[in-house]
Amino acid sequence: MTLHDIAAHALQVLDPEDAHRATIRLLAMGIGPRAAADDPPLPVTLAGLALPNPVGLAPGFDKNAEVAGAMLAAGFGFVECGTVTPLPQAGNPRPRLFRLTEDHAVINRMGFNNVGLERFAANLARPHRGVVGANIGANKDAADRIGDYVTGLKRLWGSADYFTVNVSSPNTPGLRALQTGAALAELMGRIAEARAGLAGAAPIFLKVAPDLEEREVEEIAEAAVQHRFDGIVVGNTTLSRPADLASRWRGEAGGLSGTPLMALSTRVLGQFHAAARGRLALIGAGGIGSGADAYAKLRAGASAVQLYSNLVFEGPGLVTRIRRELAARLKADGFGSVADAVGAR
Ligand SMILES: Cc1cc2nc3c(=O)[nH]c(=O)nc-3n(C[C@H](O)[C@H](O)[C@H](O)COP(=O)(O)O)c2cc1C
């Protein structure tokens, strides 16, 4: 048993949120895994960003931008921090994070707990090597929710390598209403207007829920193209509950993530790929726990992928395993690069 195995076991018996806090502290102290030098390089371009590999860390793990450097060193090809809201926010009462161990799944109703933009910006300013994105959101009691996204974009412009506008958390009441119709058009219009007034360039993604009708997928893709968003992240946690969940926590309120989300989120990703017709970059997230899962997302149309929940069960060494398996699959199927497999049915 290695020290990492012992630590991983200790973290499994702690309350999930305490375990997460402990992990962040260890990583911030420099105690964490390091990618092996001989891990396969899998370079890919995502909306103009050069990534060393397409396997990213999904937001929610590093909400306050405390450990981006450590997670890049662990082998992630990019890291997305957040969701950050303009003002610090406590989130929902605990318990609000549940491990569905039998199902390799998680339910969370955190509710955007975070330290707010100013401390997030200070943390993000620490030196790191690699691509780090900022996932921006709105405070629960904001009078002008869309204004909160504009505030986040402006405050972090120049500090983050890319931005994700998160309108898909199920844990801030009413937030998902920004995904469609007039609210989406207003959100995107105001973001585009703010961006036009800023010097320099950074890609902007919209992060959606996997709980969408096909006509909503088409509407969102067209709106994103029209307002010059660079891409879509598909997607966030689901409010649905597959009938075969076994864990005693399956009835908890919140968003479900992890293995049971893989099929749903990959299907919706494929719908976005069809609707976007090459005009948007896609990031695939939801249920990835193996190289085969990451490969399936690429073939469904994602240029890069993100994961979080399966790290809880497998530990941070998972990223190296996924990269190796992905490299082997690309080679076995005759793809010379990651890009060649993107959208290859
Ligand atoms: C505990 C937890 C907190 C999360 N917090 C955020 C968040 O703040 N912002 C966000 O965009 N997504 C958040 N997510 C969603 C993940 O980024 C990801 O989209 C989702 O979990 C699906 O990926 P996975 O199945 O690999 O976990 C969170 C997920 C979990 C499990």
Give a description of the structure.
With 345 residues, the chain is of the alpha/beta class. The protein has helices at 3-13, 16-28, 68-73, 117-124, 145-156, 181-196, 214-226, 262-276, 291-300, 309-314, 318-332, 338-341; strands spanning 44-46, 49-51, 55-57, 78-84, 97-100, 105-108, 131-136, 162-166, 204-208, 231-234, 255-258, 281-285, 304-307. The strands form 3 sheets. An 8-stranded parallel β-barrel has the order 3-4-7-8-9-10-12-13, surrounded by 5 helices. Strands 5-6-11 form a 3-stranded antiparallel beta sheet. The longest helix has 16 residues, at 181-196. The radius of gyration is 19 Å and the shape is globular. The chain starts with a helix and ends with a helix. 49% of the residues are buried. Bound molecules: flavin mononucleotide (FMN). Flavin mononucleotide is lined by residues 58-60, 63, 82-83, 97, 106, 108, 110, 135, 166, 169, 207, 236-237, 257-258, 261, 285-288, 307-310.
Quick overview:
The protein is 37% helix and 17% strand. It is built from 12 helices and 13 strands. Strands 3-4-7-8-9-10-12-13 form an 8-stranded parallel beta barrel, surrounded by 5 helices. Strands 5-6-11 form a 3-stranded antiparallel beta sheet. Strands 1-2 form a two-stranded antiparallel sheet.
